[in-house]
Write the structure tokens for this entry.
Amino acid sequence: MSNKPSEEYIRFIRYATDTYKDDIADRLINVALQEIDRISTVRQRNNTKGIEKIKSFDKNGTKFLFLDYLQPILEEYQEWKKTHENEDLYYGEDENGTISNERLLLGQMLEQRIQGTENYDNEEAFRKILKSVIKQSMQEKFEDYLHDMRREGLLERDEAGNYIHLRDIDALNTAKESTREGKQEMVEEALENFFWNDTFAAINILQLTVTDIAYYKNAEDLQKRLAQIHAPGLRGNKNARWKVNGEMQAITDGKTRTIYIADFDMVVSDAIENIKQVFEAKVDRLKKTNPAEAKQFEE
């Protein structure tokens, strides 16, 4: 990070076969199930009297955060249920394999799983609909990503049709002799593969390092707190052991001690007199300045 003396890199698996979208979508289903478990837990916590609250977690944890595109689907169903209290939706496909009321049906299935009232006979249907929505949502996010790159000028091309800022993309190595349209297609395919892999890797790295982003107030707070992950130095370990004469021995008494430092404003700064002299000198200089000269200087 910019204000830290160290940096770390985590290598992640890249899915690059023709089925990479399906491979990643299948794994994002597991992320969705993890979020469902967390939402269910937080709801139970919030409905339990006398339980000690966990700051941010008990508020943010009621929503889909890693797969944020599932949250509007859940809320749409919750609104629909208010006027259809005694109605339920049922899975069905037409002759073309199109699922009727796909988003609303998924919202119902998500809510049922959160409440613990799901019908596991519909497990295959649930995963099929969830995977379909994940792939659609990821595609929409990629289109937004491409739009942002175009807006920032990152997809600019020279007269020969070569990308000015994307010369290092592997796809360009095999696209030198292709048409202008062919180069665009290959570059966008490479960017799409990167986007899918990067999104999935980012989710996993966040889970590895901070467990759940629900513990953080917002994105700015998360970014600020991430510095603790790679701060220099070692954290205290009351169970630390050291090898002495071939045997592992404890090097602490097993206790953790905390020092609280209170604010103390009775110390007079040694530099205050110097600062005072500098400001007084500048004030004297301003008093002696001719107003006309000062006006000219201001302009």
